[in-house]
Every structure is written in structure tokens, then in C-alpha cells.
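Hi R.,

Here's the chain you asked about this morning:
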Amino acid sequence: MKFRICNIALAMLFIVLLVGCGTPVYRQGIVNKGSFEIGVPENFAGVGKAIPENSTINSFSVGFDYTTSAEMKVRGVKNSELKLSDYDPLYGGSDNDFTVIKETKVKSFKYKRNRFPLSASYTRLTKKSSEFYGFSAGVDPEPFGRFIFGVNKESFEFGGYVDLGLGVFGIGDVTVDYYECLYVYSKEERCSERTKERHFETDDGAFWRAGLGVFASYFVKNFALSYSPYLYKPHLQEFFDIKDEDGISAEFGIPVIYPWVLSQYAGASLWLNEHWKVSLGVTVLNSLDFDDFFLTANGSIGFWF
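And here is the predicted structure, written out as C-alpha cells:
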């Protein structure tokens, strides 16, 4: 009997502590306007000459790039809808899972290009009969890696690559509508809008990107013309710190659906001898959602062995 009374007393104390701590809150920021920095990766354009069969080649290369600081205006960017199961997995797949905040458009969205003037990479390729495969890894200025595959013939080559990168991006002037949503929720209780003027506490965040590219080159002796389109999607950090009315920091999420970017490189390369190769070209950034296209001038020198 005493043991049962002790258990009841402990349970009541636990409930009191839970009530005293308050109901957990999920914080959500709906972006109205802002600019976000994205990387401009270097496209892979091929080797630029015939590779001997059953051989492996390696290279160290350095790239030189120039771009303007113009921001890229993007149309049709949206904040994704927020469902109850997005922050409380217990409601996933149940009849009680419903939309808490509807999908909304971002009024003004811009990409800023983060293109460091120097980049460096290591590439290793292995050719069998005509097909070849390999990888590249480097910094541009953030670390990246890619898997490469293709066909290399006497006067042309073509193929594709899968690219992954990660790093830090800058945040511009971003304003959000700030909401607080209770974990104990009903359809009658909508998320509370706290303020329309909230700003990020930090100037940068983490990102990673994933993309697919193809390349083709035609070469005569030591000279080659190359084209390489590359489609990638930036995945930017979703949670940030924000200060409430009392100056206390709290974590909140932003649900922006970041648009795809198409990077197209066209250029020429020249093999100076068996080991040294120089390249010069231009990269065009655009998208179906961009108001304009944006240029980057590219040059590189590589040592192959």
C-alpha cells in the first residue's frame, strides 16, 4: 500500500513539473524577402585529348575565375507548407496530421554568387578500351567531390558526372513572419504570429549541393572545344537562431524551397606538351526562374601525369 501511494505521489509530481515547464513550442519563420549566397561550382569539361587504352592518368589543376557581384533575382520561390508531422513525428500518417501553415510565395528572393577567384582540384581517370571513369576532389572555395564516367575516342569524348559539395553561405537582408506553434495542437488553434520584423542573428549558415552534369569535347591534335551543362540544387541550412522580444535567442526553422540552377560552360583548351594543359572559357548561370543570365570568366592550368 505504501509503495502504491509513493508511485502515485511521484506521478503527480512529474505531471506538475511538466505543466510548470510549459508546452513545447515549434518556431517557424515564413520568408518575405532575402538574399542567400550559393556556390558557383567549376564544371568538368573532359580531358581534351585521346587517352591511351588501359591506362590511368592523374592531374593537379588550378582555376582562375572572375564574376560580378550582381545578385540574381529568382521568381516563384515558395515557403513550403508546414504540417503537424513536420515537427511532431507522432502524427505522421495519421488522420490527425493536417496543414498548420499553408504554402506561401516569397515576395523577393535573390541568389548571391559565391565565386572565389581561385580553385584547386585533383582528378584521377582510368580508361579501358574506349570507356573511362574516375573522380575529382578539390576546393572551390568549399570542398567538393565528383564521380566521372564517359567515352574517350581519337577526336572526341563525352560523358557525365555526379557532383556533391558543402560549405558556408552568406545571408543578406532577410525578413520573416515569425510564428510559434504548440506541440499540443488542434485545428481550432492556429500558430500564433509573433511579429513581422525578425532578422537573422548570424550572417552565414551551412549548405550542401547536389547536381548532375554532362560534357562533350571535340579535339584536333592538342586543341579542343568543350561544352558542359551542369544542373544543381543548393540545400541551405534550415534552422537558425533568432532573438525574441526579451532578447533571448531561440531556434526557428525556415521552409524555403530553393530553386535549381543551370550552369553552362563553353571553352577551349590547349595541351602545351604531354603534361601541361591550359583552358579558357565562360560559364553562364541561368534558370527558368531567373530574370536574367549571369556570366563568369574561367581559366585554368593543369599538370597531368
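One quick note: The chain has one domain: 36-304.

Cheers,
M.
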